[in-house]
Amino acid sequence: MLIGRPIPGGEPGQGGATVRGLYRYVPHPHASARVRQGPVKVNDQHRRDTAFERANTWLAVKITTIVGTMICAYLFTVLALISLPSALKSANLIIIIAWIAQTFLQLVLLPVIIVGQNVQAAAADKRSEQTYRDAEAVLHEAQQIQAHLLAQDRALEALAGKLGAALPKP
Q1: Domain-located, residue 14
Q2: Please, what's the b/e burial string for 116-137 (b: 16 or more CB within 10 A of its CB; e: otherwise)?
Q3: Count: domains in the chain
Q4: Is 10 inside any structural domain?
C-alpha cells in the first residue's frame, strides 16, 4: 500500500516529499523557511553587520525619532519665525526668498516629512503582517485540502481493494 510511505528528504512541512495515498506530495521549501522567518518589517532593513553600522543605525534611529515628531515641527516653525521680521525688514527679495527656502521650508518640512514617512512605514509593516497572515491561512487551507485528498485516496484504495482493482502508482 502507498499510504504514508516516506520518500528520502523528510515529511510534509519539512522540505521533503512523502507519498500520500495516490499522489506524491512535495512541499515547496520556501513555505517552511517563511514560517520560521516571519513577515519582513521596516526595522529589519537596518544594517547590523559591524559595530560601526550598529552604532550608526542606533544614532540615526534616535535622531529620527526625536526630529520626526510634530512637536519638533512646531518648535522649528517658532525658530524659523523668529528670523522672519529681520528678513522682511531687509526689503530685499533675495533675502526673503532665501528665508522661505532655506529657513522655513527646510526647518519645518524636515520633521513633517519624517512623520509622514513613519506613518507610511507603519502602514507598510501592517500590510506586510496582514499579507503574511493571509499566506499562512492559504497554506493551512492547502494542507487541509491535502488531508482531505489523502482521506479520499484511502477510501478509494479500500474500495479498489474490495473490488480487486489496481490503482495507478504515484
Answers
A1: no
A2: eeeeeeeeebeebeeebeeeee
A3: 1
A4: no
